[in-house]
Design a protein that fits this description.
The chain contains six helices and no strands. By secondary structure, the protein is an all-alpha fold.
Length: about 110
């Protein structure tokens, strides 16, 4: 038998041809319908992105750590991807007037002091 590191032992046995009949028992199909799950996933992702954007602003303004502002465009892109879900249309409408964190806005945030 081939030796596998401990963390890969079980995963390696699941993919061997002799154990393929066990896959449904190991990874059962989800019992919940997919569209509500995807809507909830998008909602949680949007909440997380908004929280992270707020934390980055707080770190820059209160704690004097403006280097985190460089990550804002990436998190903003994640937020926009999550807001594209049809179930989040009301939240997307509420956030329609929030400006994207471009270079000028990030510079303004960096100059703010409490």
């Amino acid at each position: 038998m081939t030796w596998y590191p401990p963390c890969r032992t079980r995963a390696a046995t699941w993919t061997r041809p002799r154990n393929r009949h066990r896959s449904p028992a190991i990874w059962p199909r989800p019992a919940w319908p997919r569209p509500p799950f995807r809507a909830a996933y998008a909602l949680i992702g949007a909440q997380r992105a908004l929280r992270i954007l707020g934390v980055f602003a707080r770190l820059a303004i209160r704690d004097g750590k403006p280097r985190y502002l460089a990550f804002m465009p990436r998190v903003w892109a994640h937020l926009q991807r999550d807001l594209a879900h049809p179930a989040l249309a009301p939240l997307r409408a509420m956030l329609a007037n929030v400006p994207a964190p471009d270079a000028a806005l990030r510079e303004r945030i960096a100059r703010c002091r409490p």
